[in-house]
Amino acid sequence: MVNGLKDNKNGFTLVEIIAGMSLTLMLLFLMSSFIFNTIKCYKKVNEVKLEDEYLRQSIICIQKNLENLKEINVSEKQVEIKNLKNQMKVALNSSDDLVIKYNRVKKEEILARNIEDLSFYEKNNLLYINIKNKNGGEIMWSIPINIL
């Protein structure tokens, strides 16, 4: 006993507590950084998947509009389609969106955004479509052409 105080050896010193808190804070920082990077990567992967799905859906939409086909005019960057219901043009607009422009209702429907390159060509009653978006996704497809 020193000056009337009992010598207690059961607790932690101030230096040990500060060192433990420092290590805990460093671990929390590393874990939170890992979690935030994982969330960022997850969002980017989902964005790319969504844009790829828009490419696939745009092909399905074009294929649906080729049903009951009366006339088709294919150039390298656009397709003009005339079916029993409507007359339309599939092309890129000024914002690099793949769109269908309907002549009858003066309406433009966006199929996919951020398109880098679009090309069409016709050979042996097949319409070949190549669409590439700015994230690197690409779809190449052929659709049979059956004119009534």
From TrEMBL:
Residues that span the membrane, as ranges: 12-36
Alphabetized UniProt keyword annotations: Membrane, Transmembrane, Transmembrane helix
Protein name in the entry: Prepilin-type N-terminal cleavage/methylation domain-containing protein
